[in-house]
Amino acid sequence: MNLKDLKGKRITVMGLGLHGGGIGTARFLAKAGAKVLVTDIKKREDLKKSLKALKGLQIKYVLGAHRIEDFENCDLVLKSPAVPNTSKHLEEARRNNIPVETDVGLFFKLCEGLCKNLIGITGTKGKSTTSTLAYEILKKKYRDVILAGNIGISVLEKFSQIKKNTLVVLELSSWQLEGLKKHRISPHISVVLNVSPDHLNRHKDMGDYIEAKKLIFTSQISQDTLILNYDNVFTRSFAREAQGEVFFFTHSAGVIGDRYKTGAYVKESAILFGQEEICSLSDIKIPGWHNVSNILAAVTLGTLYGVPARSIKKTIKNFKGLKGRLEFIKEINGVKFYNDTTATTPEAAFAALASFPLNLYKKRIVLIAGGADKNLEFTPLAKEMIEKVKALILLAGSASGKLEKIVEGKLPIEKAKSMQEAVQKAVLKATIDDIVLLTPACASFGMFKHEFDRGEQFVEAVRHLKSNI
């Protein structure tokens, strides 16, 4: 497939959204000369910002609902990754022999033969942090590096910038990876950070979720490379199915053996690759052992691409993390506030709590959590909470009751109908040297537009606090 094939085609874009991916897709197709119709169940008022970004382009809109006829009278349906494959509208398109694509699937088809440096990064958590850090590391040696994907930048919007030697770093979710299945395409360099239960409200079970993650490497060939986390039981097992060269990164030196190659690893208080020290753990500015794993993955990738150790070290020392990921907001009268809104699973919230050592933070964390259910298990998180959490402020949502039931009677619980109320209640529970931590362990829909809206409301509420704690 090439760009000319899109000209004049009637394409229904299903899902404009608020994060930027749908905007980039619609813009790309319109500029390619396609006859674009965008349909979204959200109303025009809710999509105001997205629609403004597309102003002036020849695009038709059907908002507030999806119409069956828009999936019958077109040449191609391009769906948002968030739309389930079981949607009745997509089934109608298939009944009419209309192809259903995703932006990632279309991008990979367009890139065939054009670019040999597609780098895919996936994992249940840590994708954005690792992808961004890897991008920053690669830029130290290469001029032509692009970052796109699940990070909020449509891969299609970056297509015009790609040349033969461009390095393309793609953050890929399980939903996006599903778009590669029918094409039997995988990135040339693939990284799997970790796998733990998530999106089980969308995937039929854990096995289905794991199979979606595997798509990042199942169509690789012998010349390709797969970078895996040795410390995660699921990703460690993926090596047996790899067609290309496998590198493991790990927190434990000397555990890999001779069958596979060792990437970056931790030895004593440093990160090494081979016998070369890349950086000290004290150089890392973002908290948590889970972030050390993310850095190990990025170091492995950068080293394989020949980036000098001194350049990698400098990048790590300057890297302060991303918004909404254990992001330090401010300190008021000895109480520190952290925004970890992207912790949408119990495992991610557990990692956030584990970032604060028990000997320093036993019963010193006021936790804001709760939200929409994704059919996940909260028991291990609850045990960590009982040790470290001074008080729990629960946001409204279908999962909040599950969490409350597990910890009820074991720590103080209050409920909040808004983020402002949650922050105000947290402040009343906090004293000097405490932490107020937003790490929801749940999805955001219901109270908020999306997880970043949730984080932004938390930050706004904190910034408006008076210094009277």
Strand order of the largest sheet: 7-8-6-9-10-11-12-13-14
- Beta-strand content bin: 15-25%
Distance between the termini: 61 Å
Mean pLDDT: 93
Please characterize this protein's 3D structure.
- The chain is α/β, with parallel strands linked by helices and 469 residues long.
- It folds into three domains: 93 residues, 3-Layer(aba) Sandwich (Rossmann fold); 214 residues, 3-Layer(aba) Sandwich (UDP-N-acetylmuramoyl-L-alanine:D-glutamate ligase); 137 residues, Protein-Tyrosine Phosphatase, Chain A (Alpha-Beta Complex).
- Helices cover 31% and strands 21% of the residues.
- The strands form three sheets. The protein has a nine-stranded mixed sheet with strand order 7-8-6-9-10-11-12-13-14. Strands 15-16-20-17-18-19 form a six-stranded mixed sheet.
- β12 and β13 form a beta hairpin.
- The longest helix is centred in the middle third of the chain and has 16 residues.
What's the quick description here?
Helices cover 31% and strands 21% of the residues. The chain has 469 residues and is an alpha/beta fold.
Please specify the SSE layout and strand pairing.
Layout (H helix, E strand, L loop, with lengths): L9 E5 L6 H11 L3 E6 L7 H6 L5 E5 L12 E4 L8 H8 L4 E2 L1 H9 L6 E5 L4 H12 L6 E5 L17 E5 L2 H5 L10 E4 L13 H9 L10 E5 L3 H6 L6 E6 L10 E7 L2 E4 L2 E5 L8 H16 L4 H10 L8 E6 L2 E5 L6 H9 L3 H4 L3 E5 L9 H10 E7 L4 H8 L5 E4 L2 H11 L5 E4 L12 H13 L6
Parallel strand pairs: 1-2, 1-4, 2-3, 4-5, 6-8, 6-9, 7-8, 9-10, 10-11, 11-12, 16-20, 17-18, 17-20, 18-19
Antiparallel strand pairs: 12-13, 13-14, 15-16
